[in-house]
Amino acid sequence: MAKELVVKSTGYIPDHSHYWRCNDHSNPHWELVLVQGNSLHFQRGNQYLLLDEGHFLLLWPNEVHRSYGDTPSSGGFYFAQFAANMETIGSRVHCRIADESIALPAHGLAHSHRVLKLFELIVQEAAERKQHYRLQVTTLFVEILIDLTRQHKPFDDQAETIHVTSPKKAEVVHRIRRFIETNYRKRLSAKDISQGVNLSYEYACRTFRQAMEMTIVEYTNYLRIEEARILLLELKEGQTIAQISEILGYNDPSYFSRVFRQMVGSSPSEYIRHAYGGTMQRDSGKQRPKTQTGRSNDGNGASTLTSSCLYSFNDLH
Fold first, then answer.
1. Rounded to whole angstroms, how far apart are CA atoms 2 and 14?
2. In Å, how far from its chain's centre is CA 174?
3. Is 178 helix (H, G, I), strand (E, B) or coil?
4. Which residues contact 68 (CB under 8 A, 6 or more apart)?
5. Which own/partner pairs from 237-240 qualify as long-range (CB within 8 Å, at least 24 positions apart)?
6. What is the pTM of this model?
7. Chain centroid, CA 284 distance in Å
8. Model pLDDT, residue 198
9. Which of 11, 48, 135, 155 is close enough to 159 for a disulfide, judged by CB 3.0 to 4.6 Å?
10. Cα–Cα dist 108/147, whole Å
11. How far apart are CA 164 and CA 287, in angstroms?
12. Which residues are 89's β-sheet partners?
């Protein structure tokens, strides 16, 4: 087992690469993959994944992976193969660096574009091979690992890959999800959604619910409340909770408060008071706390939800 972290190989693979699309791939080292662009079809073992920009995967040594499908996306992915002192604990892999242990998630969504930029710099350093480039590559890679540990949006420990019966249905769910994520602040009607995804509303609702185990309305509320938890802690002078609800597409502030309480466990005003120790500090120069929400497994079979999803296709023919 390696006593120190060493980046063995790094690069960028465009999805249209013939070598990537037509061969199985594996290597004896750990490998971190970070997606650039959307709708990347990535197969690891018997899992068929549909990945978007910022999704990352940690591949185990000798884990077989490849592309699938006939049509490449316009993007690709960065990769870094590395050796390190690694230990798997639950759903995380602990990477020992010096006297510290970095708990890496096995997969997730990078929270900012900084990680992509760092990967670009790593690939550039490896290509130019300037003085001390190996040290620089390792330093940048450690920054990436720390950023992913601190700032990624996790797939919960109990989260399950979302199952659909065909790539076609996965594309439908992806289309609906992207439309909702782009337009959830608007006051959406059934007609708006139907026209936006070019599908009948009934079919869209049925397909989405089967894959996501929640309705389109529930997913819209999830995204709105996730943003509300941030906006409520950044209230400007004179701004009201009713105005926040309007920004997020709610016609009725009372309905917004009921949905917020159902998902968060407190009313918007209680949430603010609790966050600031019983007082509203609208003008504080201090950094606001960042929060995340999601649906976790409740013991009754409800799957964990995150705002970005991995899709797994069954019964591919």
1. 30
2. 13
3. helix
4. 41, 42, 43, 48
5. 237/282, 237/283, 239/282
6. 0.54
7. 30
8. 94
9. 155
10. 12
11. 41
12. 92
Q: Identify the residue whose tokens are 């997730």.
A: 108
Closest C-alpha to 260, from 293, 302, 282, 285? 293
Whole-angstrom Cα distance, residue 81 to residue 61?
A: 9
- Supply 185's token pair: 């602040």
Residue type, position 315, single letter? D
Instruction: Tell me the per-residue pLDDT of 108-157, one tens digit each, with 9 for 90 and over.
Output: 888 778 999 999 999 999 999 999 999 999 999 999 999 888 765 544 43
- Spatial distance between the Cα atoms of 215 and 26, rounded to a whole number of angstroms: 38
Handedness of CA 161, 154, 308, 306 (dihedral sign): positive
295-305 per-residue burial string, b: 16 or more CB within 10 A, e: under 16 = beeeeeeebbb
Tokens of 245: 């609800």
Residues in the chain: 317
pLDDT tens digit string along 73-95?
Answer: 899 999 999 999 888 766 568 88
Tokens of 258: 């009921």
8 A C-beta contact, residue 212 and residue 173: yes
